[in-house]
Amino acid sequence: MADLLRSTAFRWALGIALWSALLALAMFAFVYWQTADYLREELAETLRLEVRAAAADDAAAANRVDTWIAMDPHATHYGGLFGPDGTRRAGNLGAVPEHLARDGDAYRVSATVDLAGRTLQDEIWAAALTLADGRIVVIAHDTDEIDRVKATTLRALGLGLVPTLALSVLGGLLLTSRARRRLAATEAAVAEVMRGDLRRRLPVGDHDDEFDRLTRTVNRMLDEIEHLMGEVRSVGDAVAHDLRTPLTRLRARLERTRSQARSVAEFHEAIDQGLIWIDQTLAMVTAVLRIGEMEDGRRRGAFARVDLGEVAAVAVEFFAPLAEEKDIDLALSVPGAHVIDGDRDLCFEAVSNLVDNALKFTPPGGRVRAGLQRTDDAVVVTISDTGPGLPPGERTTVFHRFYRSEAARHTPGHGLGLSLVAAIVKLHGAGVTIRDAPGGGCHVALRFPMAQAAEAQADTGRSGHNPAR
Predict the structure, then answer these.
(1) CA distance 455 to 98
(2) pLDDT of 337-364, one tens digit each?
(3) Is 428:368 a contact under the CB 8 Å cutoff?
(4) What is the 3-state secondary structure (H, E, C) of the chain?
(5) In what order do the strands lie in the sheet with 88-91?
(6) What pLDDT was estimated at residue 159?
(7) Rounded to an integer, what distance in angstroms lies between the CA atom of residue 363 and that of residue 385?
C-alpha cells in the first residue's frame, strides 16, 4: 500500500481527480452564478416596472399596490403606500424599509411584513418611488425563490462532487495502469541490461507516442553501448595479441644477445632491432589512443577552414616517390576550391592512409587515382585503384580496429589505418563508402560537409590535374 501511495501512477491519478474536481467546481460555480444572477435581474426588472406603473397614477397607486399583492396566491408579493409621514395607507408592509432608496431600482433589504395576521421580519427585494404629493409607494417580493435556487445548486454540487471525484480517481488509475505496465516492462529490461545482458532492448509500443520515441532513443543508445563494449573487448584482445609478438621477440633477442654476443657491434645490432620493435609497439598504442581521442570529439575545438584540394595535393606529392618506386601511376584531379570546416592535420592523415592503402595493394603497373568533387552541400574525396578489390562483406568491417582482410594478412600493419580514417570521418560529421572501382579494385569516397561560405570561395577556386608519378 505504501508503494502504491508513493508511485507516480497514484500521484497522476490523484492529480487527475483533483483537476476534475476543480473543473466540476468551476462549472457548478458558473451555473450557480449565471442562474442566481438571471433570477435577480428578472425579479429586479419586474419590481422596477411595477413600481413605475404604481407611481404613474397618484390616484390609483393604492389600487395598484393591492392588485400586485393579490396577484400571488403564495404570499410572496409585498407592497405598501405610505404617507409623507411614513404611515401606512395600503398594502402589507408595516413600514418603509430602512435604507431603501427612492429611485425606483430594486434592492435587498430587511422589512416588517403582515402575513396571515402576523407581523414578521423578513428579507425582501423592494423598489420605491416618491409620488408628487410626498407619498411613497413600495413594490416588493420575497427572496425565497432565489434562495431556493441557490440552495438547490449548492446541494447538487455537494451530491455531484463525491461521485465526480471517485470517477476521476478511477479514470486516472485506469489511464495510468498502461503506463505502469510499460514502466514495469522497462524496469525489467533495464535490470537485465544492468546484469550484463547488453543485447536486451526496451519494449516499444505501436502508438508512436512520447514513450515509444523515448524508448527508441534509449534502444539506439544501448545499440551504441553494445557496439562500443564489443569494440573494447575486441580491441583489448587484439592489443594483447599484437603486443605479445614484438615483446616476445624482444625478450628472446635480448636473452640470446646476453648469452651469445661477443662484441659491442652485436650488442648494438640487438639494441637497434629492439628499438624497432618498441617503436612499432608505441606506434600501435599511440594510434589506439588517437582513435579514442577523436571518437571522444576532443579535437573539434581546433577546427578551421581547410582546403581539401590542397590537403590531397600534399598527400599525393608525399607518396609520389613510393608510387614511382612501385611503378604505379598516381594522379590527382582537383577542379576548383573545396573548403570545409575541419582539422587540417587529421584530414591529411585520412587522405594519406587511403592513398597508402591503395598503393600497398595495387600491383606494379597499376593505377591510383585521387580526386575531389563538389556537390550542393558536400565535398567528396575519392581514391580508386586497380588492386584486388574488397569483397562486399568486408566493406564495413575493415573500419573496425585491428581488422585485417584476407588480402592484407601478409602485408605489414596492425589494422588501425582504416580505423583511424573512420574516427576522423566521424569527428568531421562526414561519411565513408567503399565500392568496386570501374576498372577493378576499390573506390573509396569520403563525403565531408561543405563549409558555410565555401560556395562563394568555390567560384574563384583553382582547378587542375596533378600527375604525381
Answers:
(1) 91
(2) 788 888 888 888 888 888 988 888 888 9
(3) no
(4) CHHHHHCHHHHHHHHHHHHHHHHHHHHHHHHHHHHHHHHHHHHHHHHHHHHHHHHHCCCCHHHHHHHHHHCCCCCCEEEEEECCCCCEEEECECCCCCCCCCCCCCEEEEEEEEECCEEEEEEEEEEEEECCCCCEEEEEEECHHHHHHHHHHHHHHHHHHHHHHHHHHHHHHHHHHHHHHHHHHHHHHHHHHHCCCCCCCCCCCCCCCHHHHHHHHHHHHHHHHHHHHHHHHHHHHHHHHHHHHHHHHHHHHHHHHHHHCCCHHHHHHHHHHHHHHHHHHHHHHHHHHHHHHHHCCCCHHHCEEEEHHHHHHHHHHHHHHHHHHCCCEEEEEEECCCEEEECHHHHHHHHHHHHHHHHHHCCCCCEEEEEEEECCCEEEEEEEECCCCCCHHHCCHHHCCCCCCHHHCCCCCCCCHHHHHHHHHHHCCCEEEEEECCCCCEEEEEEEEECCCHHHHHCCCCEEEEECC
(5) 88-91, 77-82, 136-142, 118-130, 107-115
(6) 78
(7) 10
Which H, E and C letters describe 302-344, residue by residue? HCEEEEHHHHHHHHHHHHHHHHHHCCCEEEEEEECCCEEEECH
Q: Match 612501385 to its residue by C-alpha cell.
A: 326
The grid coordinates listed for 143 are: 427572496
Residues whose CB is less than 8 angstroms from the CB of residue 348 and which lie 6 or more positions away in sequence, other chains included: 311, 314, 315
CA distance 52 to 397: 101
Q: For residues 426 and 448, give the distance between their C-alpha atoms in angstroms, rounded to a whole number.
A: 10
Percent pLDDT > 90 in the chain is 4
Give the whole-angstrom CA distance, residue 216 versus residue 208.
Answer: 10
> Which residues make beta-bridge pairs with 384?
369, 443
DSSP strand pairing (107-115 vs 118-130): antiparallel
Which backbone phi and psi does 262 adopt, to 5 degrees?
Answer: -120, -5
Closest by CA position to 424, among listed 300, 305, 308:
300
Read off the pLDDT of residues 131-188 as tens digits, 9 standing for 90 and up.
988 899 999 988 877 788 778 877 877 777 777 777 777 776 676 676 677 777 888 8
- Apex CA 56: angle with CA 55 and CA 59, to 5°? 80
- Cβ neighbours of residue 18 under 8 Å, at least 6 residues apart? 168
